[in-house]
Write a structure and sequence with these properties.
heterodimer, A: alpha/beta, 7-stranded mixed β-sheet, 3-stranded antiparallel β-sheet, 13% strand, globular, B: alpha+beta, 5 helices, disordered C terminus
C-alpha cells in the first residue's frame, strides 16, 4: 500500500489545475505586457485570476500580487513593512517562536541590520497568547507577523485577535497563511491583516507560484527589479499558466471547505486516537485548535529519521522534525518551543492528510506505525534504560 | 531514498548483531539522547579474540547502519584489529556516508573503543592510554539545555 501523508510538504497537483495550466499555456500564451491582442487576452486572463483569488480571500483584485510562492511572499511583506517603519524611526518587530524559516530567517537578517525582533513564546499547546502580543505592541513597533497555522504541529494561532489589536494601534500586521489557505475559511478583513502570504502547491497547484495579499495603502517594495509587472512591485513576466492553475486549485479547494474540514478532521482524530495508544508518546499541539489534516507526535526512545526510512519501506510518506532529517544538529525549533526536550523532539513524526486520504489508509497507518515504533525501540539503548529504570520517562 | 548507499540501506533495514550480550566482558556506550544518537556495544572476549559482539542504537538510519557494519568488521577478530578500526573504514565499508552523517561512523569507532576500555579496566589489563582519546563527537558538546 502507498500512503502519501506529507501534504504539508507539498500536494499532488489537482487535475483541474493541470487542465487550467494547459489551456492557459496555449489559449493565453501572449505576454500580458504586450500591446497586441494575444498579449491583451493574456492580461485579461491574469486580471480574472487575480479577482478570483481576491474573492476567495475577501479582498480586492488590486490587493493581490502574484509571486513565486510562500517564501517570496513572506520576505516581501516583512521587508516592505520593516523598511517603511525604519524610515519613520520604528524598528521593532514582533513575531512568534514557531514561524516558518521564511519568516524567521528574514527577521534574523533584519536583526543584523539593527531591528529589534521579539519572538513571542508559545505554551505547551503550541498557541501564542494574545496578551503576550498585546504587551509587546508599542509606538516603535513597525510590524507584527503571526502565522495562521503552524506547518509542523498544525496549531491555529489567534490571528484575528492579534490583527484587531494591531489595527487599533495602526501597526502593520502580516500573517503567513501558507498552511491555511485552501484548508480553512479565510477572510482578510476578519483577520485584520495588512499582508497575507500564500503558496499554490500547498493546495493542489504546481510549485513556483504563490501570492501576497497587500491591503490598499500598506507599504510594498519590490524585491525583484526590472519591468513594471504586478503594478511595479514584482518584475518578471507573469507565470500565467501557473497562476491560472493556482486559481483553479484554490477555487476547487474552497468550494466546500466545511465538508472537506469535517471529513478530514474526522480521519485526523481517528488517527490521533489510534496512535495515542502507543505507550510513552504525546501529541504535539492542541488537539482541537489545529489544521484538519495535521497529526504530529513525539515517541520516546527512538529517532525520527530511522522512523521515516522504515515507514517509507512500508509505502508511507511522512515527515519528522528530528535533527537528522534536516541536516542540522538541532531538532525542530517548533518542538523545542512547545517544551519538548531534545531527547524526545528527535523522535517526532508528522502525518498530514488530504481530502484523498481514505479510511483504509488511516487503518494502514494505525497498524504499521506502532509496529515500526516498537521495532526501533527494541534496538534502542535509550528505551532499554527507560524500561529497566535507569532513565526516567519524559512522555 | 537516495540519501544513502544501497549498503547503508541494507545494514539499516537488516541490521546484523542487534541485541544484548548478558554478562558481556566489555560494554561501551557513547553519544547522548540530546544529540539524537546513542550507541551501545557489547563484547564477548575469548583470549584475544572478539568471539561475539552485539549492539543497540538510538539514532538515525546511518547510525544504525554504522553500528551494524562496525560489529561485522570486528566480529571474530583480535582486539588489536578492533582497536585500530577507524571511522573512515566503517564509512568506506558502507560505500560512504553523507558528509553530515560522518559523525555516526565516529560514534561506532568510539563505542567499540569504549567497550574494549571497559574490558581492560574490569580485568586490570594494562593498556596504551593514547589509544583511548576523549570523544571527538564535537557537536555533542556545548549543546544548550
Amino acid at each position: 500500500m502507498f500512503v502519501y501523508a506529507d501534504n504539508a510538504a507539498t500536494t499532488k497537483v489537482r487535475p483541474v489545475a493541470l487542465k487550467a495550466f494547459n489551456e492557459t499555456a496555449t489559449a493565453y500564451f501572449g505576454n500580458p505586457s504586450s500591446l497586441h491582442s494575444a498579449g491583451q487576452r493574456a492580461k485579461e486572463e491574469l486580471t480574472r485570476c487575480r479577482e478570483k483569488i481576491a474573492a476567495v480571500l475577501g479582498a480586492n483584485g488590486r490587493e493581490i500580487y502574484f509571486t513565486s510562492g510562500g517564501s517570496e511572499s513572506d520576505n516581501q511583506a516583512i521587508l516592505s513593512a520593516a523598511y517603511a517603519g525604519a524610515r519613520k524611526g520604528k524598528k521593532k518587530i514582533v513575531s512568534t517562536a514557531i514561524e516558518h524559516h521564511a519568516v524567521l530567517h528574514t527577521l534574523e537578517k533584519l536583526e543584523k541590520e539593527g531591528f529589534e525582533v521579539v519572538l513571542l513564546p508559545v505554551g505547551a499547546e503550541g498557541i501564542v497568547k494574545v496578551e503576550d502580543a498585546a504587551r509587546e505592541l508599542d509606538e516603535n513597533t513597525c510590524l507584527v507577523s503571526v502565522m495562521l497555522a503552524n506547518n509542523e504541529i498544525g496549531t491555529l494561532q489567534p490571528v484575528s485577535e492579534i490583527g484587531a489589536l494591531c489595527r487599533e494601534k495602526k501597526i502593520p500586521f502580516h500573517t503567513d497563511a501558507v498552511q491555511a489557505v485552501g484548508h480553512m475559511p479565510i477572510d482578510v478583513n476578519a483577520l485584520h491583516c495588512d499582508y497575507l502570504a500564500l503558496s499554490g502547491h500547498k493546495f493542489g497547484a504546481p510549485r513556483g507560484v504563490g501570492a501576497l495579499y497587500v491591503r490598499t495603502g500598506a507599504p510594498l517594495f519590490s524585491l525583484i527589479e526590472g519591468g513594471a509587472q504586478e503594478r511595479g512591485k514584482r518584475a518578471g513576466t507573469e507565470n500565467l499558466p501557473a497562476i491560472a492553475a493556482m486559481t483553479a486549485a484554490l477555487e476547487e479547494a474552497t468550494r466546500d471547505l466545511p465538508g472537506y474540514m469535517k471529513k478530514v478532521s474526522a480521519l485526523r482524530d481517528e488517527l490521533i486516537g489510534n496512535l495515542s495508544r502507543i505507550p510513552h508518546c504525546a501529541l504535539n499541539g492542541d488537539p482541537e485548535k489545529r489544521l484538519c489534516g495535521n497529526v504530529s507526535f513525539c515517541f520516546e526512545g527512538i529517532e525520527g529519521e530511522s522512523l521515516l526510512l522504515l515507514l517509507d519501506e512500508e509505502g508511507i510518506c511522512a515527515s519528522s522534525g528530528s535533527a537528522c532529517t534536516s541536516g542540522s544538529l538541532d531538532p525542530s525549533h517548533v518542538l523545542l518551543a512547545i517544551g519538548r526536550v531534545h531527547d524526545v523532539a528527535h523522535g517526532s513524526l508528522r502525518l498530514t492528510l488530504s481530502e484523498d486520504t481514505t479510511e483504509e489508509e488511516i487503518a494502514y497507518l494505525s497498524e504499521k506505525i506502532p509496529k515500526v515504533v516498537a521495532y526501533l525501540r527494541g534496538m534502542s539503548p535509550v528505551w532499554r534504560d527507560l524500561q529497566e529504570g535507569r532513565r526516567t520517562y519524559i512522555l | 531514498m537516495s540519501l544513502y548507499s544501497e549498503k547503508v540501506m541494507d545494514h539499516f533495514k537488516h541490521p546484523r548483531n542487534v541485541g544484548v550480550i548478558e554478562n558481556a566482558d566489555g560494554v561501551g556506550e557513547v553519544g547522548n539522547a540530546k544529540c539524537g544518537d546513542i550507541m551501545k556495544i557489547y563484547l564477548k572476549i575469548d583470549g584475544d579474540i572478539i568471539s561475539d559482539v552485539k549492539f543497540e542504537t538510538f539514532g538515525c538510519g546511518s547510525a544504525i547502519a554504522s553500528s551494524s557494519m562496525a560489529t561485522e568488521l570486528i566480529k571474530g577478530k583480535p582486539l588489536a584489529d578492533a582497536l585500530s578500526l577507524t571511522n573512515k573504514a566503517v564509512a568506506e565499508a558502507l560505500d560512504g556516508l553523507p558528509a553530515y552523517k560522518m559523525h555516526c561512523s565516529v560514534l561506532a569507532e568510539e563505542a567499540i573503543k569504549a567497550a574494549i576500555l571497559d574490558y581492560y579496566t574490569k580485568n586490570n589489563i594494562p593498556y596504551d592510554e593514547s589509544l583511548f582519546r576523549e570523544s571527538s563527537c564535537a557537536h555533542c558538546e556545548d549543546k544548550p539545555e
